[in-house]
Design goal:
alpha+beta, Secreted protein, 5-stranded antiparallel β-sheet, 34% strand, SH3 type barrels, 1 helix
Length: 113
């Protein structure tokens, strides 16, 4: 076997190995979607726990626009959107029962919120 063929085969092999170990694509956060509150006085909470009266950081109202970032599954406590009330600037969690998202919402990055 000639030196040329050996070098060519080695180059092909190294190229194939390089393709197998190419860096993985970086994580892209889910796209935020717009939305709104479907009721007045919707509690915006610092944590997705409906039983803690001390975690309410704001209230949302019909006519307030929101930016919905992700869906938090709180199991028996219900499902919450992590969001920002664009009218007041308050960020937190609100029940999906009183919030409408204008599109598909992905689960929060850690799987549950």
């Amino acid at each position: 076997m000639s030196l040329f063929r050996t070098t060519a085969r080695a180059a092909v092999l190294l190229g194939a190995v390089g393709a197998l170990v190419a860096p993985a694509a970086s994580y892209a956060a889910p796209a935020a979607v717009s939305g709104y509150f479907t009721d007045d006085g919707v509690r915006i909470r610092s944590q997705p726990n409906p039983f803690d009266p001390n975690n309410v950081v704001g209230l949302g109202y019909r006519g307030h626009s929101v930016t919905v970032y992700c869906l938090f599954n709180a199991d028996a406590n219900g499902n919450f959107y992590q969001l920002r009330d664009n009218t007041t600037g308050v960020s937190g969690y609100s029940s999906i029962a009183y919030t409408h998202a204008n599109g598909d919402v992905s689960y929060c990055p850690n799987g549950s919120g």
